[in-house]
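Narrative of accomplishments. A recurring question from our advisory board has been how the design workflow behaves on a single, concrete structure rather than in aggregate. To address it, we present the structure tokens for one chain from the evaluation set, followed by the sequence designed for it. No filtering or post-editing was applied between the two.
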């Protein structure tokens, strides 16, 4: 491994631990990463949310005048603060949606109001502008993680009391078939394209208050989940995923999923003479013990000592951050004549590649001969970003909004995603089996 690069030994960065405790740690980190993936930003840190206003009323109710006040704040502040709120949604349509959102406020619970507000903001069509229901602290969670793959909705994490259900495909949630449940939550999710929508769906389906407000489940009691083998389970709400004792994965864990808690790490694959570089977040990471620039320096020093015939940069789980952090890595790849060739340099992309990670992919496309492998990105090549927030003072919720537009002339038109040169799907069946067909395609590709 690469601990020899650095003056300070960092074995946790470069060596895998496959015991149960390590797998459980990685699983929990993956759950947290799952919720954060679509919240990327570009070059400035997202400021802390302003202090909320009055303490929300107790229980599940909100006074109609308070709900109306927050709706007014949401509508006026978004129109004022967003870089261009009406870039896709005409102003007249926005005004009609706001008026519709103001009807029947007296009949709404707090969860019902949150659902209504989220749907209104999602109608803008900007994946960075949202009332994220998975970020509302008063909402609980089901003790499981759903993930939507091309071949269905799968349980990719669950509490240890129901460990046997990990990896099963879901057919029903509450009262509805899974397709209907997904269709119910999709209008609430801000997204750039189908990929980022698929990433966020699983998180929303795990929020009991949202399921109840949409009529997917009843108002009280556990939530019934049915799987493809005909079995079922009932799960009760927990206040936070931090309360959950997660089932430890028993099967193989693909290479790219082994260290989700780190923003970046690498590995040498001697059987392929390949250098694998995982870049999970566009940020320098104290947990890694070094800056990304330092890791890049060590990586290229290592490649002078070992035969490296291909370099695989994996951006599939990178939801954004500061696009400038990757500059040393991109510059080093562009300047290396032995690697900057078609068939030697590979960039893995997918539905979680979002925000600044898309900008990094564009820069790699501009400066290198990298082959893009995997699935279309979850972010648009040209998109709004540079996120800030403002509070809704009556409810205490925060609204995220974009302050800048990023555009590129490296792709024709205005596509909703960057598409791979070598398309490879990653399915739920692959996940269950511990396979990674995307990495395999890069390692086996013959120019």
């Amino acid at each position: 491994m690469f601990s020899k690069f650095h003056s300070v030994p960092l074995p946790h960065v470069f060596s895998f631990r496959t015991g149960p405790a390590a797998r459980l740690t990685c699983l929990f980190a993956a759950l947290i990463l799952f919720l954060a993936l679509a919240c990327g930003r570009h070059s400035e840190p997202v400021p802390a949310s302003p202090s909320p206003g009055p303490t929300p009323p107790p229980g599940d109710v909100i006074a109609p005048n308070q709900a109306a006040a927050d709706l007014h704040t949401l509508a006026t502040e978004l129109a004022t603060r967003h870089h261009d709120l009406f870039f896709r949604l005409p102003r007249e349509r926005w005004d009609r949606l706001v008026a519709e959102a103001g009807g029947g406020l007296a009949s709404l619970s707090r969860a019902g109001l949150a659902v209504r507000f989220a749907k209104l903001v999602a109608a803008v069509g900007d994946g960075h502008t949202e009332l994220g229901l998975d970020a509302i602290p008063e909402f609980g969670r089901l003790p499981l993680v759903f993930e939507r793959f091309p071949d269905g909705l799968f349980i990719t994490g669950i509490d240890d009391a129901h460990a046997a259900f990990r990896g099963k495909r879901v057919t029903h949630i509450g009262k509805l078939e899974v397709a209907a449940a997904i269709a119910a939550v999709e209008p609430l999710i801000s997204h750039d394209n189908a990929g980022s929508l698929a990433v966020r769906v699983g998180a929303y389906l795990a929020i009991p208050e949202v399921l109840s407000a949409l009529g997917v489940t009843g108002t009280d009691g556990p939530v019934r989940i049915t799987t493809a083998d005909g079995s079922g389970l009932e799960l009760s709400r927990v206040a936070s995923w931090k309360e959950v004792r997660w089932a430890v994965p028993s099967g193989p864990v693909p290479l790219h999923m082994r260290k989700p808690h780190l923003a970046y790490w690498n590995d040498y694959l001697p059987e392929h003479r390949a250098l694998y570089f995982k870049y999970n977040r566009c940020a320098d990471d104290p947990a890694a013990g070094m800056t990304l620039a330092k890791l890049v320096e060590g990586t290229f020093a290592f490649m002078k000592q070992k035969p490296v015939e291909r370099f695989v940069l994996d951006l599939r789980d990178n939801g954004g951050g500061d696009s400038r952090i990757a500059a040393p890595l991109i510059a080093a790849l562009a300047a290396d004549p032995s690697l900057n060739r078609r068939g030697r340099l590979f960039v893995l992309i997918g539905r979680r590649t979002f925000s600044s990670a898309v900008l990094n992919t564009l820069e790699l496309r501009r400066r290198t001969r990298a082959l893009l492998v995997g699935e279309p990105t979850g972010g648009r090549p040209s998109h709004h970003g540079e996120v800030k927030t403002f509070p809704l003072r009556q409810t205490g919720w925060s609204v995220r909004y974009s302050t800048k537009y990023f555009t590129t002339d490296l792709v024709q038109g205005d596509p909703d995603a960057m598409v791979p040169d070598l398309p490879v799907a990653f399915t739920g069946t692959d996940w269950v089996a511990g396979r990674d067909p995307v990495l395999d395609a890069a390692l086996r590709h013959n120019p």
